[in-house]
Amino acid sequence: MKKLLLLVPFALALGACTPTQQGAAIGGASGAAIGSLVAGDKVEGAIVGGAVGTIAGALIGRSQEGSNQCIYRDEYGRRYTAACPRGY
After folding, report:
1. Segment holding 4, helix H or strand E
2. Which residues lie closer than 8 Å to 59 by C-beta, 6 or more apart?
């Protein structure tokens, strides 16, 4: 069971697209797992830990993305990164 809990954050990260989404997925799952283990009330600890982990992970992931870079899709569905429009 514990091995399954360790694999869940990595499986979620594989399905995410950007570093911000990857950070949020890993942070949320890790925060929920740690919160449920540390808190007296497992459900409340998982909720609070998941929320804090998601926010922290998203902020960390966002800092790893290129500055002023946006992700676009072309007509074939392929993703590419380019400068964001002015004022974005």
Report:
1. helix 2-15
2. 23
